[in-house]
Amino acid sequence: MSSLQRILYVEDEPDIQAVAKLALEMVGGFQVKICSSGAEAVRDAAQFAPDMILLDVMMPEMDGPATLKALRQQPQLAEVPVAFMTAKVQASEVAHYKSLGARDVIAKPFDPMTLADRVRSIWEQ
Amino acid sequence: MHEEPLTPDHVLAQLEQLRKDYFDRLPRELETLGALARQLADERGTGEGLASLHQRLHKLAGSGGTFGLSGLSAAARALEQRVAGWIEAEGLPVDTPLLTRLLADIEALAEMAVAGEVDGMRLLARGPAEATRGEEGRVWLVDDDLFQGQELARQLESFGYEVDLFPSLEEADGAALGGERPAILISDVYFEPGGENATVSISGYAGLMALECPLLFVSSRDDFESRVHAARLGAQGYFLKPLDVPRLVNRMVQLVEQRNAAPERILIVDDDRELAAHFRLVLQAAGMQADVLDDPRSIMDRVAAIRPELVLMDLHMPQYAGPDLAGLIRQYESWDSLPIVYLSAETDLGRQVAAMSRGADDFLTKPVSDAQLVAAVRARVARSRQLEAQIARDSLTGLLKHAAIKEAIEVEVSRARRTGKPLAVALLDIDHFKAVNDTYGHATGDVVISSVAMLLRQRMRNTDIIGRYGGEEFAIALPDCPLEHAKALLEDIRRRFQDVRFSHAGRTFSCSLSAGAAASTQSATGDGAWLLNAADQALYEAKRGGRNRVCVAGDATSTQVTES
After folding, report:
1. Interface of B with A (CB under 8 A)
2. How high is the pLDDT of residue A110?
3. Can you point out the beta strands (E) in B431-504?
4. Contact status of A31 with chain B (Cβ, < 8 Å)
5. What is the ipTM, given to two decimal places?
6. Does domain B265-391 have CATH number 2.40.50.140?
């Protein structure tokens, strides 16, 4: 865990994917892989070997928490820091998401110019 | 790994392109959404159709917010939650009237998106934090009792508000979805028939929930549950009927003022120049006015010049420690309640407590995150402004009290002497006010007084200072304002005030006011007391000349009287 370079972002909405990619690659200088569904993440994540994973909470079929659970069962991904992305950020919900094993919650919509800093500060926690 | 450093401009250009693409696709997405809702309304909401609608609304809420369409996003979010509620309750199939309303709301959403496209593009330039502000002075009043509603609307109008009266939340919601924006929303709590409780049901109206204006409730019943619901909605007031209108108006004025509040003034005292510069940038980025003290020995001069609302003080500095300087500030009576917050790497609790006992109010431990710094400073300043307002402000009008306005005028005079810019000071007095009180009662008299206060606030700049000088007398200070401008402004206020119609028990009447003004340029050495005295003489001239007129010091000729 030397430095934060590779970020896996799981998000079903293509518009948000594009903005997030821009924000993390161009502003943050990270290497980013996007997965459009929980199932795709479960299939491809280990091979990408991310330093950190960002998970949208509300996705069809496999939602964020279910994806997290499935990812944690793969030994290579059991310890990778995870943050949830969601529009509903009440204190009780943040606590709930943390209890599921996420390190923090990022509010949507996010500011593209500061998303990378936010991700880095969560990673450094 | 990554080629060249990218400039923010480059990123912004790319973002702009993404947004443009999004706006191009948006109409089609909304069409699909509408078709889906229509199909549902025809088929009476099956589980599958609802799930798909829910998913699309969810996406719209997320993507709309990402591209700066905050109103659209909030409206889509409210609809998403409504549909989610139906799915969770498993009360399928959903009733036809509910689906019809959903369809109407979705169609309104589409219209809002089209209307909001321009908004969205404009928001882009300003960033997502700044939302569209409602039209100043425009109030929406929702009350099913039309008689009471009209009565309140009329009274608010005499305070200079424009009031739109809606008989139901649904109609107000329609106006909101149509893109209209009030500065304040006032709603009755109980609606007949059916006993709809607005504190509960309002969250189901997408358009109203998307409004970003203050919300006030008025009710004939005082019940705990409704008050809690109102608090959860973030309502800024809950007033009981029969309404004390001046108090309601006072709250409304405060709310609008808070939104337009002047930036917080912060003085940073830290010997680490780089760190001090960083704090200054962070606070400035949050919209505050921040200055760094360079030489500790000049601290009182800087405090007097900047008049900070909070001092951010490093605890350990080589020459003079934080507590030394804090203690020094506290020796000056006028600064003994200035909030001082220590900022230091000190983690020893005992030493923090010792430092706090010497003149400071709070302690922030370095390293402090930017967000934490801004939040801590903002909260402290807001609290101290509130306290200051309670002490220094008149409860009826919310204006500065006699002592506070006199003090403010002294401050402005010395500022004017320093900057060489003219300061105008004026006194205004309501004509024959005793007769108003005697004829219509003190409650009506209070309305008249409040309406002058209201008018002054509306016509004057943010930097002007307004006070209630006496019972029906007002004092104002106009920095950087030549005497002839002050006279024109007072003329305008005088004319507007004589047009205001007041009513009591079915009888309408109007009042007038007289004003006198003087300017700092009329004397090389005159202080605040001199200016007030000169303005008072001019006011006396105006009264003697027949009232309902404006006079300025050193000018024997008053303005033309407009007889009604």
Report:
1. 1-2, 6, 8, 10-11, 14-15, 18, 22, 55, 58-59, 61-63, 65-67, 73, 77, 127-128, 369
2. 84
3. 465-468, 473-478, 502-504
4. yes
5. 0.78
6. no
